[in-house]
Amino acid sequence: MDTYNHERYIEQALVSVLEQGLSPAELEIVVVDDGSTDQTPSLIQKFAPRVKHVRKKNGGQASAFNAGFAEARGEIVAFLDGDDWWANGSC
Q1: Residues with Cβ < 8 Å from 54, sequence gap 6 or more?
Q2: In this predicted structure, what is the pLDDT of residue 56?
Q3: Residue 31: phi, psi to the nearest 5?
Q4: In order along the chain (91 residues), what is the average pLDDT of each group of 10 residues?
Q5: How many degrees, rounded to 5, is the angle at CA 20 between CA 18 and CA 25?
Q6: In 10 A of CB 68, how many CB atoms?
Q7: CA of 19: how far to CAs of 3, 12, 91, in Å?
Q8: In DSSP terms, which residues pair with 33 in a beta bridge?
Q9: Long-range residue pairs from 50-55, CB within 8 A, at least 24 positions apart, any chain
Q10: Segment holding 56, helix H or strand E
Q11: Cβ(68)–Cβ(54) under 8 Å?
Q12: Do 1 and 30 touch, CB atoms closer than 8 A?
């Protein structure tokens, strides 16, 4: 998940992923914070340790995706922006 100043949406986005019903062994959640200047980082931290929070200097969405790829360990990668959410049962 990439995010930048999404304090208004980030919790809903993360909850929507967690509510898919997958176990920690089945689902790795990496959130790349692209240098947010609002409360986004502290909101992401509320989901630790279930969510891995990667913070980086602002560099744009593509650089956030690249940082996320470098951290991800799974075979399949799914994208979600910090201001979007997944419908229940979509995984």
Answers
A1: 30, 31, 32, 33, 67, 68, 71
A2: 98
A3: -110, 120
A4: 98 97 94 98 97 97 96 94 90 69
A5: 70
A6: 19
A7: 19, 10, 10
A8: 3, 55
A9: 50/18, 50/24, 51/14, 52/28, 54/30
A10: none
A11: yes
A12: yes
Pick from 87, 62, 89, 85: which is nearest to 6 by CA?
85
Determine if the pTM surpasses 0.85: yes
Q: Which residues pair with 55 in a beta bridge?
A: 33
Q: Is 80 exposed, middle or buried (0-12, 13-18, 19+ CB in 10 A)?
A: middle
Q: Distance of CA 56 to CAs 32, 36, 60, Å?
A: 7, 9, 10
Q: In terms of C-beta density within 10 A (0-12 exposed, 13-18 middle, 19 or more buried), how is residue 1 classed?
A: buried
Cα angle for residues 74, 80, 85 (degrees, 5° grid):
125
The residue count for the chain:
91
